[in-house]
Design brief:
The structure holds three protein chains of three kinds. By secondary structure, chain A is α/β, with parallel strands linked by helices. Chain A is built from 20 helices and ten strands. In chain C, α5 packs across α14 and α6 crosses α9. The chains are: A alpha/beta, B mainly alpha, C mainly alpha.
Chain lengths: ~450, ~300, ~280
């Protein structure tokens, strides 16, 4: 009992101290509060400094004469070093200090958020993936205003990528070097054997609507004796439906909205699971990876532009020989993934950072070279229109030409800064619904809304 | 200076000197962050450069009405209780066997080392390892159970609340019984050898020796293990995090208090409410630590 | 839940049963045989995942994902070569070794000093201060992170390895554990006689007490070293220069974003575990 009293005393003491800290904490933070003024300064600086515009025109400046040092953070070890290499090929005298911070459990985002909050240790340029780019686009003091600097180049970009990089007040803050338009990748041999054709146009037709996908899945299951499912996991079509919505999860007046696409998807996924039309693997799990390399198991993968090397190519080593995979038109235009880049609003190297950023997001020739070297898809309409110089070995198609018709239909305004949390809640409810733990669709939607309400207190849920 | 009543007090100032560096560092790196959290619990803040806004006890009012928090507390207690009891029994039994001079077990050192092995790896890696083992369609456990015809079809372990909690408990037991065992062994070794010899000469059997000499002799270790297991168990994070996809799936049945707090802070960017969950947890842990102390005081006093 | 409960319940019963049978019969008995079987089974349960980890590091990524592997393969060097191109693991080793060693030494010395202060001196507010030590055990790293970050950045220790070492001075669990050990293992008479011989208090600690409490310090040092070696969250937040990354950060790096190169990851994990196994097997003696 004596000890217990002492513990209580500790609690009392701690809570007393906390109120003390509360007092000094708030006064301490008020020293940071002139922030709103400074956040406007980068754009002001950009408009007074015409030199920024000059650096946009590649021929006007001698890139080898530009000297300096900037810091750059990326979460992807497969991309970061290559970007630096490509940049240094044009700007040999600029030193880029690259740090790769894995985004395991959102830790890359949190590290940057912490640094922005502390106002020190933030890199001059940092990347953000589609899943969390909006967080930094909307965050005060994070990305600098690029509107003035980029005004001559945004017209060349795929419109949806610009929409993603623009905050809710219409200020452009992040740019992308790639467009991640989606298609469908399928295994040619299995398609030929069980569906009677491996022709992209015919396959696209078989998958052109929800009903047709289900009919195709049924045929496939019957012909293969259950060995081949249409999808490896319900998460494949989920990526398509998410990226093909017409409205985001959260409306302009901060209300949770569930797009019709997602309501359709709930039924679609249930049908897939109940009939074993999907192989119930987890996306990115070892089983899922090995299903890509296998000849059977599943037929169709959601395949954005980067998926050709990184989903198909890296998991199926034989894919590079050609003839194993093909891509077909998706049932509707969608996008999945992609990486954006922005300049830290308080970086003292705004111009140099812009040289770096514009080199791989606005310079057509550099972007095209990057796309060819890295099997990527450039975010540059002119480069796309020229087509790839040669067909992709993995899918046997001219990738630029193939994706070109879908990119203009993509809606980039569907991303919100809440997506990570909302989609996690959605998947969790989806899994329980598919496993039969939640009995009805209505109950599933209600559970989902409750979860969103618990997790995001500033959103209205009806 | 004050009057010194006892001889010991003359050296009392050295006590302060010896603990000073510790408390200086503790104040900077632990107590300040802790108090800062408590301060944040009185605010509404998204972790950005915009200063926290004081909202008084609004977060606490929300916490009392929060079903998810209650669910998280229940989950944590269930998981903790179902692994701590087997863990302690296992650890104390093994420690007694492996330190007993009169039971000639060969390879004591080998067993001791191998039981401790699971504690050497990062928790997140252990979690991931078990996650892969329990995977529905491609995990080794289902692979094995289907092969030896226990199951006809793979069982979806991590979509079942009981199985998920069981998996977390088992993983924690697997990881920590060796650690507890080592602590108990260190305690037993500190018991003067002649006590055991005297008991042996007097013809006491192993059970009597265990109950009358070993248990009272390792009071400190028992205290240490109980308190650390309360704290460790109620603040568990990595393993449930990995096994429940980071969100406490299925449907919050695998959500622990720290998971909830972590997600609220670092995923939902609600720093104020996250800190409030922390404060709630702090109170719960303190209550349990106090209970542990009280029970031990009582039990050990009677021995 | 029921699985583990039943399992452990059974083991507990076995244990007690064994106690009784072992003592009644001679040195060779059925009871002892059962005891051995039980101990060995438990050993297998503990070692199996490690076995798979090491086995996996010797196979190609494709095999790891597709097959149930029981025997070692021949791809370790391949995996290693791919891994070493992605992550400078040996630099990570050096960093981890420096950080973990410094942290262990600091926590051992100052932990022992603090425990000694608590165990052998009487001063005002002692129990209260000790309760604070105890309470500080309850701060989960995950939430203290926000305040910790604030502290570290305001004293300009960001991206500095010292920020991961200095906090080890205040290692509450060491104090908690060693205090009880000193109380039971060091008698007051030892100190009295040292004082008679004219020893100062610091010398008593450094040359008499410290050697006496080596066993308990060694136990705690193993835990501190392993804890520091495996620490992930704090180094990730503090360090941003890749040349300062520790082994767990390197392991996370080896995973990549899209690519599932399990061979390289397992090679990395297998290598990263070697030193702690070595440290453990040395110290456990």
């Amino acid at each position: 009992m004596k000890r217990f009293k002492k513990l209580l005393a500790v609690v009392a003491c701690v809570s007393m101290m906390s109120t003390m800290f509360a007092a000094c904490g708030s006064s301490g933070d008020s020293t940071n509060s002139p922030a709103p003024d400074t956040s406007a300064s980068p754009s002001a600086e950009a408009s007074v400094a015409p030199s920024a515009d000059a650096s946009v025109a590649p021929s006007a400046v001698d890139k080898t004469a530009v000297k300096g040092e900037i810091s750059f953070w990326h979460f992807n070890k497969d991309e970061g070093p290559n970007i630096v290499k490509a940049f240094n090929a044009a700007y040999p005298n600029v030193k880029v200090n690259l740090s790769i911070v894995p985004d395991k459990d959102q830790q890359y985002q949190n590290k940057i958020t912490s640094a922005i909050r502390a106002g020190s240790g933030v890199p001059d340029v940092f990347s953000a993936e589609s899943a969390f780019v909006k967080r930094f686009v909307e965050m005060p003091d994070a990305f600098a205003d690029l509107t003035a600097k980029a005004k001559d180049v945004v017209g060349n970009m795929v419109p949806y990528t610009v929409a993603v990089g623009t905050d809710k007040n219409g200020v452009l803050r992040a740019l992308s070097h790639q467009a991640a338009a989606g298609a469908i990748a399928y295994k040619k041999a299995a398609a030929k054997q069980y569906l009677g054709t491996d022709d992209p146009a015919q396959i696209a037709d078989m998958l052109s609507s929800q009903d047709k996908m289900i009919a195709t899945a049924k045929t496939l299951k019957e012909k293969s004796g259950g060995k081949v499912a249409l999808f490896p996991t319900f998460e494949e079509p989920q990526k398509m439906y998410l990226g093909g919505r017409s409205q985001g999860w959260v409306s302009a007046d901060n209300k949770l909205t569930i797009d019709q696409k997602m309501l359709d998807f709930i039924d679609f996924a249930k049908t897939l699971r109940d009939n074993k039309y999907e192989a119930a693997l987890d996306q990115w799990s070892p089983g899922w990876s090995s299903a890509i390399a296998a000849d059977d198991k599943a037929l169709v993968w959601a395949c954005p532009t980067w998926g050709i090397p990184w989903i198909v190519g890296s998991n199926d080593k034989k894919a590079a020989d050609g003839g194993r995979w093909a891509i077909a038109k998706p049932p509707f235009a969608y996008f999945w993934g992609g990486t954006w880049f922005g300049i830290y609003s308080k970086s003292d190297k705004q111009d140099l950072a812009w040289d770096f950023l514009s080199q791989f997001t606005a310079d057509k020739d550099a972007m095209k070279k990057w796309a060819i070297d890295n099997q990527d898809f450039p975010n540059n309409l002119a480069a796309i229109a020229e087509g790839s110089p040669e067909d992709s070995k993995i899918v046997g198609t001219n990738v630029f030409k193939f994706y070109e018709p879908f990119i203009k239909d993509i809606n980039g305004s569907i991303l919100t800064k809440y997506d990570d949390t909302i989609e996690n809640a959605f998947v969790d409810c989806m899994r329980s619904y598919l496993a039969g733990k939640i009995k009805t669709k209505d109950e599933m939607i209600k559970t989902f809304k409750d979860k969103v309400k618990t997790n995001l207190k500033d959103i209205t849920v009806e | 200076m004050l009057n010194k009543l006892r001889a010991g007090d003359k050296y009392g100032q050295y006590g302060y000197i010896f603990i000073a560096p510790f408390f200086l560092v503790l104040a900077i790196f632990t107590i300040f962050p802790m108090c800062y959290s408590l301060y944040l619990s009185l605010t509404s803040w998204d972790g950005s450069t915009v200063a926290p806004k004081i909202v008084g006890f609004a977060n606490y009012v929300d916490l009392l009405k929060d079903d998810t928090f209650r669910q998280a507390v229940a989950n944590t207690l269930i998981i903790w209780l179902s692994n701590v009891a087997p863990q302690m029994i296992c650890a104390i039994g093994l420690a007694a066997i492996l330190t007993d001079k009169y039971t000639e077990i060969k390879g004591k050192g080998f067993f001791r080392a191998i039981y401790y092995l699971p504690n050497l790896v990062t928790m997140a890696s252990v979690g991931l390892l078990f996650y892969y083992i329990l995977d529905w369609q491609s995990g080794s456990l289902n692979f094995l159970l289907v092969k030896i015809h226990v199951f006809k079809e793979p069982f979806n372990w991590l979509q079942d609340p009981t199985a998920t909690r069981g998996a977390i408990s088992f993983t924690l037991w697997w990881m920590w019984f060796g650690y507890s065992m080592i602590i108990f062994m260190a305690g037993i070794k500190a018991i003067p050898e002649d006590l055991f010899e005297a008991a042996h000469v007097d013809g006491a059997n192993r059970m009597q020796t265990f109950l009358n000499i070993t248990i009272p002799g390792i009071k400190g270790s028992i205290m240490y293990n109980c308190v650390t297991s309360v704290i460790g168990g109620l603040t568990m994070f990595d393993i449930p995090y990995v096994l429940t996809n980071g969100v406490g799936s299925p449907l919050d049945k695998g959500l622990t208090i720290v998971n909830y707090m972590y997600n609220m802070t670092f995923k939902n960017y609600n720093f104020g409410y996250g800190a409030t969950i922390y404060a709630g947890m702090f109170v719960i842990v303190l209550i349990f630590v106090a209970i542990a102390f009280k029970m031990l005081d009582k039990n050990l006093a009677t021995n | 839940m029921s699985y583990s409960a039943n399992y452990s319940g059974a083991t507990a019963k076995n244990l007690n049963g064994n106690f009784n049978t072992v003592k009644k019969k001679g040195s060779f008995s059925i009871g002892k045989g059962i005891l051995y079987i039980f101990l060995s089974l438990l050993a297998v349960v503990c070692a199996l995942p490690f076995y798979f980890m090491i086995i996996n590091s010797t196979h190609s990524s494709a095999d790891i994902a597709q097959k149930f592997l029981l025997l070692p393969g021949l791809d370790f060097l391949d995996n290693y070569n791919r891994m070493i191109k992605l992550v400078p693991i040996w630099t990570g080793f050096f960093n981890s070794l420096v950080i973990a060693t410094c942290a262990t030494v600091l926590s051992g010395y100052f932990g022992a000093l603090t425990s000694f202060g608590f165990a052998k001196y009487k001063f005002k507010g002692k129990e209260f201060l000790f309760a604070i030590v105890l309470a500080s055990l309850i701060v989960p790293q995950q939430i203290a992170l926000v305040g910790f970050y604030k502290v570290v950045s305001s004293i300009h220790l960001m991206n500095n390895r010292a920020a991961l070492v200095i906090p080890a001075i205040a290692s509450a669990s060491v104090v908690f554990f060693v205090r009880y050990y000193i109380q039971s293992a060091v008698s007051d008479s030892v100190m009295e006689s040292a004082r008679m011989d004219g020893c100062g208090e610091f010398r008593i600690f450094n040359s008499i007490i410290l050697p006496m409490i080596v066993p308990s310090l060694a136990t705690m040092s193993i835990f501190t070293f392993i804890g520091s070696w495996n620490s992930y969250l704090l180094p990730l937040f503090i360090l941003s220069d890749q040349n300062k990354y520790t082994v767990p950060l390197m392991t996370a790096l080896s995973k990549g974003v899209y690519q599932n190169d399990y061979g390289a990851v397992y090679a990395c994990i297998a290598i990263s575990m070697m030193p702690i196994i070595v440290v453990f097997s040395f110290c456990s003696k």
